[in-house]
Amino acid sequence: MKATQLPSTGVQVTPADLLRCAALYLRRHGWHQGTYYATGDTLTPPACAAGAIGIACAGHRVEHFSQLDPDTLAGYLTTLAVFVDYLDTFAPVFHIDEDGYLLDEHTSPYSWNDDPTRTAEQVITALLAAADEWDRLHTDGGENR
């Protein structure tokens, strides 16, 4: 190990941690609808739920998530899937065609975020609740199962 290299702490960042970071990001920098980020050249723009999750995973604004390194992309996709699972269970949005057939069995975090009646507080609350649900299902007394 090089003298400037810090030893690994062995701490695993979970999807719940990243969801809480995304909620905190939205509280501090604002929420946005329609695109990942509000326009502008700021390093910390208002973001949608998916954009905030991306920033929590990468540590910075990312124009397209295909630009992430494989580990960061895996963390982003896993955390987004945890959020979708939460929305499917607790805030489902069903798209039914004119014949009454279900078009999509999963709630899109993008259309959920962009619903004109959605509020920033609802998004932040859902991110935190999804984190709590992940912890409930995956930890035992604070330790990963």
Structure description:
The chain has one domain (15-139). The protein is 49% helix and 6% strand. It is built from five helices and four strands, in the order αααββααββ. It has helices at residues 15-29, 49-58, 70-90, 109-114, 120-138, and strands at residues 95-96, 102-104, 139-140, 143-144. β3 (139-140) and β4 form a beta hairpin. The longest helix has 21 residues, at 70-90. The chain is globular, with a radius of gyration of 17 Å. It starts with 14 loop residues before the first helix and ends with a strand. The mean pLDDT is 86. InterPro entries: DUF6197. It holds the Pfam family DUF6197.
In the predicted model, the low-confidence regions spanning at least 5 consecutive residues are none
Whole-number count of domains:
1
Portion in beta strands: 5-15%
What global shape is seen? Answer: globular
Largest sheet descriptor:
2 strands, antiparallel
Following the backbone from N to C, one meets helices and strands in this order, namely HHHEEHHEE
The largest beta-sheet arranges its strands as: 1-2
User: What is the CA–CA distance across the termini?
Assistant: 31 Å
Computed structural class = mainly alpha
| Radius of gyration computed on alpha carbons | 17 Å
**How confident overall, as mean pLDDT?**
86
| Secondary structure: number of strands | 4
Tell me roughly what share of residues is in helical segments. Answer: 40-55%
- The number of helical runs is 5
